[in-house]
């Protein structure tokens, strides 16, 4: 069972997507803790529906309307995205707003170690990941109609305030390390250096769809946390993910021989990114890593709260992920102290 009101959805699709007819079959994609996502099969083709989750949500969270807007704006740029078909902001149709996009087929790598690939193949995938991240940050905001996609000012001050508020609104346990990390970030905010670009907000390997038989990325997905801000937040988030345990839950590279596997070092990834964007080497990267861990801890705390409240996409997995909040806080403090 999909949990969708298929008769209502079918009627809406037939009214808003010319040529699409019912009946509609829907299957929910497994995994993920954010906006529930479904494959729709119709006599006229297959599509993907992404909706807000049910229940009481934090303000500004799960904004599928923003996801739709940014991906539509990126059509025709150097950033590969799925084609957007239609947005429904009427909650009465299936209970929450949703949008419809094309189904992009290809490979998604859940594990950064990419088991099954040769070392050269892994290196090519990482290079493509690096290329597209640079492309996201080089999008001309004005030309894409995204100059107002997020506020101006100091991105990290804004983000730290936002995620501190959301963390405390969803807190279920006392995590002293998280409070220490919040205080450290507030005391060490970098000056605004004028860099302002499109930020994906959750750029990692499993949010990229690669061609079936080539390293090219067909689509960057899951734009829920996107905004305009500072590029090093995305860059640090990639390295943060790689520092996680090489397990099904951690989805990192910790403890693996990267060179033998054909995987890039952190320094090589950052250097190639800077080369692609024509920018100088990045100083004081510890702050950005600390921030990345802090934000992930806050996100996972929200996942845990939704799981406990019974409205997470996968409640059991949500509780397991929520247990990592203290670990991310500790890793963030280590990065702040130069031990990350």
Automatic annotation (TrEMBL):
Coiled-coil portions: none
InterPro entries: ACAD10-like, ACAD10_11_N, Aminoglycoside_PTrfase, Kinase-like_dom_sf
One Pfam family recorded for the sequence: APH
Span of domain Aminoglycoside phosphotransferase: 27-249
Name this polypeptide is given: Phosphotransferase family protein
């Amino acid at each position: 069972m999909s949990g969708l009101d298929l008769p209502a959805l079918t009627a809406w699709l037939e009214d808003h997507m010319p040529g699409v007819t019912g009946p509609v079959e829907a299957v929910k994609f497994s995994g993920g803790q954010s906006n529930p996502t479904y494959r729709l099969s119709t006599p006229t083709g297959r599509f993907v529906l992404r909706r807000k989750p049910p229940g009481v949500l934090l303000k500004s969270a799960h904004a599928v309307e923003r996801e739709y807007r940014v991906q539509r704006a990126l059509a025709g740029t150097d950033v590969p995205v799925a084609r957007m078909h239609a947005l429904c902001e009427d909650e009465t149709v299936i209970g929450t707003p949703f949008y419809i996009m094309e189904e992009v087929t290809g490979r998604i790598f859940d594990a950064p170690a990419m088991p099954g690939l040769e070392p050269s193949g892994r290196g090519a995938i990482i290079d493509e990941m690096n290329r597209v991240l640079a492309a996201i940050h080089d999008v001309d905001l004005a030309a894409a109609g995204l100059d107002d996609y997020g506020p101006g000012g100091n991105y990290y001050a804004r983000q730290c305030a936002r995620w501190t508020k959301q963390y405390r609104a969803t807190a279920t346990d006392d995590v002293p390390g998280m409070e220490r990390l919040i205080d450290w970030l507030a005391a060490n905010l970098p000056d605004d250096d004028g860099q302002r670009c499109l930020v994906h907000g959750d750029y990692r390997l499993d949010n990229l769809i690669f061609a079936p038989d080539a390293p090219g990325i067909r689509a960057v997905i899951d734009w829920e946390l996107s905004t305009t801000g500072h590029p090093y937040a995305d860059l640090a988030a990639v390295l943060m993910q790689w520092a996680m345990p090489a397990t099904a839950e951690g989805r990192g590279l910790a403890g693996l021989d990267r060179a033998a596997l054909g995987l890039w070092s952190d320094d090589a990834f950052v250097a190639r990114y800077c080369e692609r964007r024509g920018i100088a080497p990045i100083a004081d990267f510890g702050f950005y890593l600390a921030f990345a861990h802090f934000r992930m801890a806050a996100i996972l705390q929200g996942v845990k709260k939704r799981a406990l409240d019974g409205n997470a996409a996968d409640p059991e997995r949500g509780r397991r992920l929520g247990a990592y909040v203290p670990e991310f806080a500790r890793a963030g403090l280590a990065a702040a102290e130069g031990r990350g």
